[in-house]
Amino acid sequence: MQVKVIFHCLYRELAGVTYKYLELPEKTTLLDLVREMEMIYGRELTGQLIDYEKNEIWSQMALAVNGRIISDLDKFTYCLNENDEIIFLPPALGG
Protein backbone atom coordinates (compact mmCIF):
# COMPACT_ATOMS: atom_id res chain seq x y z
CA MET A 1 0.00 0.00 0.00
CA GLN A 2 1.12 3.57 -0.55
CA VAL A 3 1.04 6.31 2.10
CA LYS A 4 2.19 9.92 2.10
CA VAL A 5 4.39 11.06 4.98
CA ILE A 6 4.59 14.81 5.61
CA PHE A 7 7.33 16.41 7.71
CA HIS A 8 7.14 19.78 9.46
CA CYS A 9 9.79 22.03 11.02
CA LEU A 10 12.76 20.12 12.46
CA TYR A 11 11.55 16.83 10.98
CA ARG A 12 11.54 18.41 7.50
CA GLU A 13 15.09 19.65 8.03
CA LEU A 14 16.30 16.23 9.16
CA ALA A 15 14.50 14.34 6.38
CA GLY A 16 15.57 16.83 3.73
CA VAL A 17 12.11 16.72 2.15
CA THR A 18 8.66 18.12 2.87
CA TYR A 19 6.93 14.83 2.07
CA LYS A 20 7.61 11.33 0.81
CA TYR A 21 5.44 8.57 -0.61
CA LEU A 22 6.23 5.15 0.85
CA GLU A 23 5.20 1.65 -0.17
CA LEU A 24 4.39 -0.37 2.94
CA PRO A 25 2.95 -3.82 3.65
CA GLU A 26 -0.71 -4.13 4.63
CA LYS A 27 -1.42 -3.79 8.38
CA THR A 28 1.59 -1.51 8.94
CA THR A 29 1.29 0.37 12.25
CA LEU A 30 2.57 3.87 12.96
CA LEU A 31 5.44 2.38 14.96
CA ASP A 32 6.28 0.12 12.00
CA LEU A 33 6.28 3.21 9.77
CA VAL A 34 8.75 5.00 12.01
CA ARG A 35 11.00 1.93 11.98
CA GLU A 36 10.82 1.90 8.16
CA MET A 37 11.77 5.58 8.17
CA GLU A 38 14.83 4.71 10.25
CA MET A 39 16.04 2.55 7.36
CA ILE A 40 15.60 5.51 4.96
CA TYR A 41 16.65 8.51 7.07
CA GLY A 42 18.68 7.01 9.92
CA ARG A 43 18.53 7.65 13.63
CA GLU A 44 19.14 11.38 13.35
CA LEU A 45 15.50 11.75 12.35
CA THR A 46 13.96 8.74 14.08
CA GLY A 47 15.76 9.58 17.32
CA GLN A 48 13.43 12.58 17.40
CA LEU A 49 10.42 10.27 16.90
CA ILE A 50 11.19 7.19 19.01
CA ASP A 51 12.22 6.79 22.64
CA TYR A 52 14.66 3.93 22.02
CA GLU A 53 14.95 3.11 25.73
CA LYS A 54 11.21 2.42 25.96
CA ASN A 55 10.77 1.32 22.32
CA GLU A 56 7.87 3.76 21.95
CA ILE A 57 6.98 6.77 19.85
CA TRP A 58 7.65 9.98 21.81
CA SER A 59 4.42 11.07 23.48
CA GLN A 60 5.33 14.78 23.10
CA MET A 61 5.23 14.52 19.32
CA ALA A 62 1.88 14.98 17.58
CA LEU A 63 0.93 12.58 14.81
CA ALA A 64 -2.00 13.12 12.49
CA VAL A 65 -3.46 10.64 10.03
CA ASN A 66 -5.74 12.13 7.39
CA GLY A 67 -6.03 15.33 9.42
CA ARG A 68 -6.96 13.59 12.70
CA ILE A 69 -4.57 13.79 15.67
CA ILE A 70 -3.80 10.29 16.95
CA SER A 71 -3.95 9.76 20.72
CA ASP A 72 -0.82 8.76 22.63
CA LEU A 73 -2.00 5.18 23.10
CA ASP A 74 -2.98 4.76 19.45
CA LYS A 75 0.43 6.01 18.26
CA PHE A 76 1.83 2.54 18.84
CA THR A 77 -0.87 0.37 17.33
CA TYR A 78 -2.78 2.47 14.79
CA CYS A 79 -2.91 0.54 11.49
CA LEU A 80 -2.42 2.52 8.32
CA ASN A 81 -4.50 2.17 5.17
CA GLU A 82 -3.91 2.74 1.47
CA ASN A 83 -3.48 6.44 0.62
CA ASP A 84 -3.31 7.59 4.25
CA GLU A 85 -1.57 10.92 4.82
CA ILE A 86 0.61 10.92 7.93
CA ILE A 87 1.87 14.20 9.37
CA PHE A 88 4.69 14.36 11.92
CA LEU A 89 4.39 17.50 14.06
CA PRO A 90 7.15 18.39 16.54
CA PRO A 91 6.24 19.27 20.12
CA ALA A 92 4.81 22.74 20.59
CA LEU A 93 6.99 25.05 22.59
CA GLY A 94 5.54 27.38 25.15
CA GLY A 95 6.65 29.70 27.81
Automatic annotation (TrEMBL):
This is MoaD family protein. Gene3D superfamilies: 3.10.20.30. It comes from Thermanaerosceptrum fracticalcis. InterPro entries: Beta-grasp_dom_sf, Mopterin_synth/thiamin_S_b, ThiS/MoaD-like.
